[in-house]
Amino acid sequence: MIPAQFDYERPSSLEQACQALASDEDAKVLAGGQSLLPLLRLRLAYPSKLVDVGRIAELKGVHDRGDHVFIGAMATHDEVLRSPVVRDGCPLVALAAAQVADPAIRHRGTFGGSLAHADPAGDLPAVALALEAVFVAASAQGEREIPAAAFFVDYWESALRQGEILTGVKVPKLGAGWGFHYEKFHRTAQAWAIVGVAAAVRRSNGSIAEARIGLTNMGATPVRARATEAALQGVELGDQVRQACEEAAADTSPPADLHAQPDYRRHLARVLTHRAVRTATASP
């Protein structure tokens, strides 16, 4: 199908982009376009204007900010997964970015665009939730920060207000003693996750001192597996870990679609959580 007619602007600064969005309540931001363009072709989105932020230098790059890594919204998935700053400071982000779609999409799609799209089947939202990342948004009224727990509101709906642009994401560095893994079950390499699990685990004296687990495609938004996180605390590495991971699907509302029913997704959540935790505890 052919997209509906729209106006197009390509500002060269963040200030100009904010002004362009503020002037039209039906305008949308165009970053890498890997999520938005298919919606336009299917006429599932009808923006009156596209504001292309591809030229804005302030939105690009990956930066070491001491206690956190700041990832610009326009950094591509490929830039993120190859960045030494990301690999050293927040390796879980690099692990998940490497599993986003395929190389062609990873070279065009952007880190911020994927998160702002707020698809619960996307790989990065669960990672941001598990790492307790903070989203930075700008508008004509100024800048504000949004914690990951408040950013994802519903299917394809984020906490970004009309006229706001996601400028980047602050990802905390968890430091020594933490292990990470992202486990994903999907039909093909390019497909969305049927279920995915982002795990960050801190070990101490042969047991698990703390665990953070984010679930992909187990509800209308990414979900923290709070019951399993609590059950894992203080558990010695071994069979008790598997038992704790049986709680991974508690308080979730997985969707039903052509690829999987809710019961199957709950089963996958338990199995994949155990795999992710086990691998995270074994990682250096």
Structure description:
With 284 residues, the chain is α+β, with helices and mostly antiparallel strands. The chain contains twelve helices and 14 strands. Strands 4-5-10-6-7 form a five-stranded antiparallel beta sheet. A four-stranded antiparallel beta sheet has the order 11-12-13-14. The chain starts with 6 loop residues before the first strand and ends with a helix.
What distinguishing features does this structure have?
alpha+beta; five-stranded antiparallel sheet; flavoprotein; four-stranded antiparallel sheet; about 280 residues; single chain
What is the compact description of this entry?
The protein is 33% helix and 26% strand.
- Mind describing the biggest β-sheet? 5 strands, antiparallel
Structural class call reads alpha+beta
List the helices and strands in order.
EHEHEEEHHHHHHEEHEEEEEEEHHH
User: Span from first to last CA?
Assistant: 49 Å
Tell me the overall shape: globular
Output the number of helix runs. 12
Number of β-strand runs = 14
**Strand ordering within the main sheet:** 4-5-10-6-7
The proportion of strand residues reads 25-35%
* Whole-number mean pLDDT: 96
What is the radius of gyration?
Answer: 19 Å
Amount of helix: 25-40%
Low-confidence stretches: none
